[in-house]
Design goal:
62% of the residues lie in helices and 4% in strands. It has a two-stranded antiparallel sheet with strand order 1-2. It starts with a helix and ends with a helix. The protein has 2 domains: 88 residues, no CATH class; 59 residues. Helix 3 packs antiparallel against helix 4. Strand 1 and strand 2 form a beta hairpin. With 149 residues, it is mainly alpha-helical. The model has no long low-confidence stretch (mean pLDDT 83). It has 6 helices and 2 strands; from the N terminus they run H-E-E-H-H-H-H-H. The structure holds zinc ion (ZN). Zinc ion (ZN) binds next to helix 4 and helix 5.
C-alpha cells in the first residue's frame, strides 16, 4: 500500500496531471470460476483500496497518516474515480446496502406497529366482552329481582 502511494505520488510531482493504474490479474479457470491473483495475497488496506467501496483517499489517509475522519475527496483535490461516480464518496453498491438496511428497519418498524395495533384491538375486544357480560349480569339480576317482587 505504502509503495503504491509513494510511486503514484511521484506522478504528481511535476505538477502535471497523472493517472495511476493498478493492474489486477483475473482469469477464468477451466471450471468457469474466476480467479483473482492479486487481492488474496495483498495486505488488507491495499485490498480494500483496490475494491474501492468508498473514496480511495480515505484508505490512503488511514494507511499513511492514520486519519480516519475523511469521508470523500475534499474541495481543491482532484476527485478519485469513486468520488467522480458518486459525490458522497460511496460506491453505488455500498449505498444500496445502506438503503436495504433502512428498508429492513422500516419493515421491522411496520411489523411492530401492526402488532401493537392488533394488541389494542384484542384489548378493546376483551373490554367489550366484559362490558357485555356486566350488562347481561345486570339484566339477569333485574329479572331475578322481579321474580322476588
Ligand atoms: Zn475520493
Amino acid at each position: 500500500m505504502r509503495q503504491y502511494v509513494q510511486e503514484s505520488g511521484r506522478g504528481g510531482r511535476s505538477g502535471l496531471k497523472s493517472e495511476a493504474i493498478v493492474l489486477r490479474a483475473w482469469w477464468k479457470r477451466k471450471d468457469g470460476s474466476v480467479y483473482r491473483e492479486v487481492g488474496h495475497e495483498l495486505e488488507l488496506s491495499a485490498r480494500k483500496f483496490l475494491e474501492g467501496d468508498r473514496c480511495r483517499r480515505t484508505y490512503i489517509d488511514e494507511e499513511m497518516d492514520g486519519r480516519k475522519d475523511r469521508q470523500r475527496c475534499e474541495p481543491g483535490e482532484e476527485k478519485c474515480d469513486v468520488c467522480q461516480e458518486s459525490p458522497g464518496g460511496i460506491k453505488r453498491a455500498a449505498i444500496d446496502e445502506v438503503q436495504e438496511e433502512r428498508e429492513e428497519e422500516a419493515v421491522e418498524r411496520a411489523k411492530v406497529k401492526r402488532q401493537e395495533e392488533e394488541q389494542k384491538v384484542r384489548e378493546r375486544m376483551v373490554a367489550i366482552t366484559m362490558e357485555q357480560r356486566r350488562i347481561e349480569i345486570g339484566q339477569r339480576r333485574k329479572v331475578e329481582q322481579r321474580g322476588y317482587e
